[in-house]
């Protein structure tokens, strides 16, 4: 069997995103053609598929008795772009179908309440305190996020500024890299990512860490590439549909967790230049015409 093309017998589309195939069906199709180490990875995936979306590469490697490099290689030979792609496909396969009828407004608010309750239980209070302390003591603070995670972090950066803590929060991917390259010991990089595996955010984190900056990770998943590099991890838990293009309810939790971090920072008795912020806001509001 070719390791680069899944079988298409019985008219099935063997692509991971094909309408008639599933992630596990693809793994079963490829597994017989894998070597010893890669085959062990495939067996663990088939035996414990419900756990894989919550595992890091290292955790799957440990369960299979192999290395993270073998896990990534196995995932590619199984027809996925990498381990994170496999996690997403398995999460999507197990996600419940949304109800098509009912009060959609009530459903949205109910989902938001459930997400907040799960997030409240998931967030480690001591981790928030440690993160606030790092931010308070830092010479410079950089916020990094991309995609749907960027708006909550940009909002938080502005709110930190109103408390007297200047924050650098570049939006452009290259600007994030440039800023991360200038960080060093005594600086902090806070990265926000729902999956904890965004390629561009991960690159910024690795660059900042290489320079000696402390890393704070705020993610839905506690076990993912970005949290594995962090000095402090704030996990809000995986809520909503894990495969959704826009993890809206997860972002609600991220915004609330960032506000909790801001309030923990503000509670620290440190000198800060926050005066005059109301005047700034007042100056930005135009008077209504008579």
Can you put this structure into words, describing what you see?
Helices cover 52% and strands 7% of the residues. The protein has 290 residues and is an alpha/beta fold. Strands 1-2-3-4 form a four-stranded parallel beta sheet, with helices on both faces. α10 (199-211) links the parallel β2 and β3. The chain is globular. The termini are far apart.
Along the chain, the helix and strand elements come as HHHHHHHEHHEHEHEHH
Side-by-side strand order of the widest sheet:
1-2-3-4
Oligomer: single chain
Largest sheet: 4 strands, parallel
- The beta-strand count equals 4
Please, how many helices?
13
Give the structure's gist in a few sentences:
By secondary structure, the chain is of the alpha/beta class. 52% of the residues lie in helices and 7% in strands.
Give the secondary structure arrangement, pairings included.
Blueprint: H1 23-30, H2 36-47, H3 57-64, H4 68-77, H5 83-94, H6 104-122, H7 125-137, E1 141-144, H8 150-162, H9 173-181, E2 188-193, H10 199-211, E3 214-219, H11 225-229, E4 232-235, H12 248-267, H13 277-284
Parallel strand pairs: 1-2, 2-3, 3-4
Summary tags:
single chain; 290 residues; alpha/beta; four-stranded parallel beta sheet; 13 helices; 52% helix; 7% strand; globular; disordered N terminus
